């Protein structure tokens, strides 16, 4: 799902601010978001299944070995359901996936859902941690840069944002490992500790992957918020608030920030697929047993059901995140921006 980033919304007039809001615009936005999300999900899963079907993998021949007869291969292909028409297999696969059944691995016969259930919390932890870091530092940097427009803090934040946006996640990950795991041994080099075993160890092992993955998104959020907030702070209603004696903190956080946050949330929507996909790459660098490791092993073995299951879950997460952002943007900014 993609997000279109637009300019900051126009500040509301007094009559607009006092007029009662009707639920219909929000309801229309929710319905449109759901329709778009369903369409994207169907098209993406169809393409995913089609690529798996076109891969030319012959799991029966691989599993049975060279001594297997053609009759044995045909019998195992029938067991896997590979002798049925493509559309029939897709409908059965997507129907089973909606019900929680992603099939079994061709080589280990372990249910794909079980394998994903073990790996998914790792990737979700990294993606959620990176999103949290990007939001915190992006909004903090954007607000500081906007309220100190033209000053030294503004220039420093702009410079750091520009540099951070140009550093790939895997380069940042290697640099952070060298700095904070070897030169200054504060965080572990690799590995993953489940939260049920130790919350402190779980948070510690997520710090470096989350920071490495969040740089690009945090920098973009800071730039978008800074630009939007500077424009909003120059609106007439902000000038009127200053004249009436409202404090700077109340003006920024209660009146200006809710209006100016739309472009920053749109930027987060743009980076949502990168955060989810980047978690797969980052966990490989940090040796974490997430969806990336699972998909990598399955791809090397030609285990198509596992690869398709991982892609399906990834697509579902991206679609859900985009739909949520769409609703949030429609509520906070009141514009036609789309995260779907």
UniProtKB/TrEMBL annotation:
Its main location: membrane. GO terms for cellular component: plasma membrane. InterPro entries: BPD_transp_1_N, MetI-like, MetI-like_sf. Residues 120-329 form the ABC transmembrane type-1 domain. It is a multi-pass membrane protein. Keywords: Cell membrane, Membrane, Transmembrane, Transmembrane helix, Transport. GO terms for biological process: transmembrane transport. It is found in: Cell membrane. The chain crosses the membrane at residues 30-54, 124-147, 159-187, 199-219, 275-294, 306-329. Belongs to the binding-protein-dependent transport system permease family. This is Oligopeptide transport system permease protein OppB. It comes from Microbacterium foliorum.
